[in-house]
Design goal:
By secondary structure, the chain is of the alpha+beta class. It is built from 3 helices and 6 strands; from the N terminus they run ααββαββββ.
Length: 122
């Protein structure tokens, strides 16, 4: 599956998660948003945001837009596994000397991510 391409409703959750991670790492906001449902619920992994909850594709566009536009850093997926419609990704974000490690728990519905809850190691 190519980020930004139409997503088949029966897409494998692991393939959806991989496409999402690739779009996110490429700082491609439109491709990332194409991989979430209209009503996607996102709970931030940022410790400063204290797990802030954002709902809906357009609200995600507003929240994610500035950081996607700024670019910088690279996401590195360390491990991924799935059980049914749930996917767990362990990742590292590297930006110069700064390294953040975390885990995302995703739920996939009809070939798109409908929930993303992030957790970071502090």
């Amino acid at each position: 599956m190519v980020a930004g391409a139409p997503v088949p409703s029966d897409a494998d959750p692991l393939a959806v998660a991989a496409a999402f991670a690739a779009a996110w790492d490429a700082h491609d906001l439109e491709a990332t948003l194409a991989l979430v449902t209209d009503d996607c619920v996102f709970e931030s992994a940022r410790t400063a945001a204290n797990g802030a909850r954002v709902q809906g594709r357009e609200e995600l566009r507003r929240v994610w837009g500035p950081s996607f536009a700024a670019g910088g850093g690279a996401m590195e997926v360390e491990a991924t596994f799935a059980s049914g419609d749930r996917v767990v990704q362990q990742w590292r974000f590297v930006d110069g000397d700064r390294v953040v490690r975390g885990v995302d728990v995703l739920r996939v519905r009809d070939g798109r991510i409908c929930e993303k809850s992030g957790y970071v190691k502090t």
